[in-house]
Amino acid sequence: MAMHARIIRDVRHPSDAVIAGDLRKHRRLPLSLAGRFMRADRSEYTCQLKNVSVGGAAVVTAHTPEVGERVVVYFDHLGGLDGIVARITSDGFAFVFKVTDHKREKLAAQIMWLVNRDDFPAEANRIHERVGTRGRRTTLRVEEGVVIDVELLDLSASGASVGTPARPQIGSFVVAGKTRAIVRRHHEHGIGLQFLSLLSPEALRDSFP
Fold this sequence. Notes:
Layout: H1 17-23, E1 29-30, E2 34-38, E3 44-52, E4 56-60, E5 70-75, E6 79-88, E7 92-97, H2 101-115, H3 124-127, E8 131-143, E9 146-155, E10 159-163, E11 173-176, E12 179-187, E13 190-195, H4 201-207
Antiparallel strand pairs: 1-3, 2-3, 2-5, 3-4, 4-7, 5-6, 6-7, 8-9, 8-11, 9-10, 10-13, 11-12, 12-13
């Protein structure tokens, strides 16, 4: 799926001008995910993600909060996102994320994978030839500041299998060697990983020396 920039140009509230201008710094990508959002009074409503960037998102909902109101929005595959409502749209609202730099970096990787997930079918492990690498060691960063030593069981351009007693949540993002990946499955000896982008032979050697 091609990645197309989508910029919201309609600023309906003068007080939103600064916020909307900031949103234009980031690439807006069309992405549809089911979700729910919680308003400042803790009431909850269903919504649908319309487009997203590392700076903010637009959602479709029949229940609109107030401009400037703080909301927490939960999307499938993205988790919870804290933010401030920037403007009301014809079919919902747009909000600006209030997240840490680490969360923003993780979010960028999640968005990239979700937008391009049709290029990585579940059968990717069968499509790309796997090379046995049993006995080789590499590292696996499962969260910020937590890096564990693992056995590299096999490797391909699209993913890897690593031997480890650790069981990061399926769908979570990790860094194997020097490559970002998503946990796709648990198996008897460890976990199966899918890279966020296909790696060339040179990139594989660089990431897993």
